Automatic annotation (TrEMBL):
It comes from the Bacteria. This is Alpha/beta hydrolase. Residues 308-360 are annotated as: Disordered. Signal peptide: none annotated. The keyword Hydrolase applies. InterPro entries: AB_hydrolase_1 (IPR000073), AB_hydrolase_fold (IPR029058), AB_hydrolase_sf (IPR050266). Residues 421-521 form the AB hydrolase-1 domain. Keywords: Hydrolase. One of its GO terms (molecular function) is hydrolase activity. It comes from Streptomyces albidocamelliae. Residues 321-338 have a biased composition (Low complexity). Pfam families: Abhydrolase_1. PANTHER family: HYDROLASE ALPHA_BETA HYDROLASE FOLD FAMILY, MONOACYLGLYCEROL LIPASE.
Length: 702
């Protein structure tokens, strides 16, 4: 009699490998694969056709026909997809692989909760829960780690109540060349490969041949190792431990291969990426590029195992001989009908120690196999922008149309078709849309994005003051047919966005300020950057004496776009060099004397706006995204401004410059997307080592 197996998972990669293993195990098994993978900027989840093709190829079945059904849905919305389904066995795959642990744990809990609630209606006789062998520690208290153990307890209790046989399986992270295609980045080796690729992309965007002359130094690798477990091998072990056929209720852990020294993995992965990676003893003297790699390797080190410790032997199976198949250990066995014992918390420490090794029965991946697998991952990273973090997916075209405002044409650009209020992007004065192309490309798959060509600097433009900019913004909203919008103000756009919120508070759902300038006439508190101070002096002089413009054209060259940032900050090095794609864009306001005079007068007018005085009455939630090495707009002044907004969050990107929305579009787009969805929780939902959140105990930016 045909068996029907339902596999629901937040990882389409691992759930798909399991589905393939299930299909190849029996010719009459039907599989329903419910993918709850979430699409995010820089990590686009595959659609139903992509998943079905992947499973068929993995199972070596050119056409599985009616034996495979693929359904896609968000973790919070799978209850409706489960209605009406039946299955003999149910798998819930929640491996805890999201780069942001809190966000991932919530998605995993939502999926598992829906599947467990539907268990009686599904009519299953067996349930298999697949979770992480050790969730990444999220702080001294470890609520995420405890949360995954709580999911296991809930699974056991639900199965006992429903009279369903159960297995709880734990798996280490896996390595799979298809991960970049799936928009996934499991912990361990994949995070290391992503870090190298993202740093290389960001550096070569500025200086293409930089790595031909400079190595990258990596600290903290001594004494650590990574387990390199191919996804197909993990799926095989999981299937053997949980497949139908008389296994008793209980726990099992997939054995990890013996760890490979982290220094060796770095050397091989670096060579595949064309980077000379050199391990160093400490972080003293790290360059800016080294620091960026170091920050992005933080969770790689947290997931590493200590070398030199004896591997845990797998626990023996039950005495009746029906225990787990050889190679599957059970380090935390529980009697049938008993919930799992909670894992012990790690002792409090600023940096939690790496987890100890899981049961080790397999030989480590050979050096040749590592070279081959790393190379395939690198090839997919190079051609698919979904996991690249900085490059790719810039082909999302902005649809251009023209509307008339104040008797003059206004160019409006749109992309995306998302539901809800659109994201309206306020560009900096004097700038074209080229700064925002990469950011809009990352936002468009998830939101409707609208922007326009800021007016006032072209030769045929009349004087265009702050009030005129507000009128243009209102006209853009009308043209977009939007009663409400999320306003994204880059650089000088932040002041215009704040003023518009005061004009039409009901029309503003939220405010996002990207590398915002809050410079104010008459404030001499030392918080301005040198560039701001120099620009202010030139603009005031040109406002009074426009004839001096020709001589002043060469005084300001914002080409570095990064500099040393705040006083006392470390040198940005190669990351302070302007992206080659922005060379012409940054010089738009300085291309001739007439344009420069118009630009100077716009800025002088804008600096009269006191955004701090308006901030206290802004009721919308506000997100500040600033950069450590912003040498143009002062991060220190932005932090001061953030304190004036009642509902502000302030995120500072390490080793980033003024053009971070262009240089790190996936990260900035992810911050925006999560903020729009849950403004009061964004600091928990997007928490990476390269982001510093400034929030006091009452939730206000500090």
């Amino acid at each position: 009699m045909p068996q029907r197996v339902l596999i629901a998972g937040t990882s389409a990669l691992l759930a798909g490998r399991l589905a393939a293993r299930c299909l190849s195990a029996s010719g009459d098994t039907e599989v329903v694969l419910l993918s709850a993978a979430v699409s995010r900027p820089g990590a686009i989840a595959p659609d139903r056709k992509e998943i079905a093709s992947f499973v068929a190829q993995s199972a070596r079945l050119p056409d599985p026909g009616g034996r495979l059904t693929v359904v896609c849905g968000a973790p919070e919305a799978v209850a409706g997809e489960l209605a009406g389904l039946t299955a003999d066995q149910v798998w819930c795959v929640v491996p805890g692989w999201d780069r942001a642990p809190v966000r991932g744990a919530r998605g995993d809990a939502a999926l598992a909760g829906s599947v467990l609630a539907a268990l009686p209606a599904l009519g299953a006789v067996g349930y298999v829960h697949v979770g992480p062998d050790g969730a990444a520690d999220d702080g001294p208290a470890g609520p995420v780690r405890r949360g995954y153990r709580e999911l296991e307890r809930r699974a056991v209790e639900a199965c006992l109540d429903a009279g369903v046989a159960w297995r709880v399986l734990r798996t280490p992270p896996v390595l799979d060349d298809q991960a970049p295609v799936f928009g996934e980045c499991p912990p361990g080796a994949h995070r290391l490969l992503w870090a190298l690729h993202a740093v290389r992309t960001e550096v070569e965007d500025r200086v293409p041949d930089w790595f031909e002359r400079h190595p990258l130094r990596a600290a903290g690798a001594a004494g650590l190792g990574l387990t390199l477990l191919p996804a197909e091998q993990a799926a095989e072990e999981l299937w053997r431990a949980g497949a139908p056929g008389g296994l008793p209720d209980g726990f099992a852990t997939v054995p990890a291969p013996a760890p490979v020294p982290l220094a060796d993995v770095l050397a091989r992965a670096g060579a595949v990426h064309g980077i000379d990676v050199r391990p160093v003893a400490d972080r003293a003297g790290l360059s800016a590029a080294d620091r960026l790699l170091d920050l992005r390797l933080a969770d790689v080190r947290a997931q590493a195992v200590r070398l030199g410790r004896p591997a845990e032997a797998p626990a023996p199976g039950p005495s009746d001989g029906t225990g787990p198949a050889a190679g599957v250990g059970a380090p935390e066995p529980a009697a049938a009908g008993q919930p799992p014992a909670p894992s012990a918390d790690l002792p409090e420490a600023a940096d939690p120690p790496p987890r100890s090794a899981t049961p080790t029965l397999a030989a480590p991946l050979s050096a040749a196999a590592q070279w081959e697998l790393f190379g395939r991952v690198r090839a997919y990273q190079a051609v698919d922008g979904r996991a690249a973090g900085t490059a790719g997916r810039e082909d999302v075209g902005l649809r251009r149309r023209t509307v008339e405002v104040a008797g003059r044409p206004l160019a409006v650009y749109e992309a995306g078709d998302g539901d809800g209020p659109p994201l309206v992007v306020l560009n900096a004065l004097g700038q074209g849309p080229g700064f925002l192309t990469r950011l809009c490309a990352r936002l468009a798959p998830h939101h409707r994005v609208v922007t326009w060509q800021v007016r006032g600097t072209e030769r045929d433009d009349p004087p265009w003051r702050a009030g005129d900019q507000l009128d243009d913004l209102e006209a853009v909203l009308d043209a977009a047919g939007a009663d409400r919008a999320h306003l994204l103000g880059w650089c000088t756009g932040a002041k215009i966005a704040t003023a518009f919120q005061r004009r039409r508070p009901d029309a503003v759902a939220s405010l996002v300020f990207l590398n915002a300038t809050f410079r104010q006439n008459g404030r001499w508190d030392g918080l301005d950057t040198k560039y701001e101070a120099d620009l202010a002096a030139v603009c005031r002089a040109l406002d009074r004496s426009p004839a001096k413009a020709t001589r002043m054209l060469g005084l300001l060259a914002p080409g570095a776009g990064g500099g040393k940032g705040s006083p006392g900050a470390r040198d940005a090095g190669v990351l302070g060099v302007l992206s080659r794609a922005l060379t012409d864009e940054v010089r738009r306001p300085f291309r001739d004397a007439e344009v420069l005079v118009r630009y100077a007068r716009q800025l002088v007018d804008l600096w009269r706006l006191d955004s701090a005085a308006q901030a206290a009455r802004v009721t919308a939630p506000v997100l500040f995204v600033c950069s450590e090495f912003d040498g143009i707009s002062s991060p220190a002044r932005a932090r001061e401004a953030a304190r004036c907004f009642p509902r502000a969050r302030y995120a500072e990107l390490a080793v980033a410059g003024h053009y971070a929305p262009h240089d790190r579009p996936a990260l900035v787009a992810e911050l925006i997307t999560e903020f729009v969805r849950a403004p009061d929780e964004v600091a928990d939902l997007v928490r990476y080592a390269e982001i510093t959140w400034h929030i006091d105990t009452e939730g206000t930016a500090r």
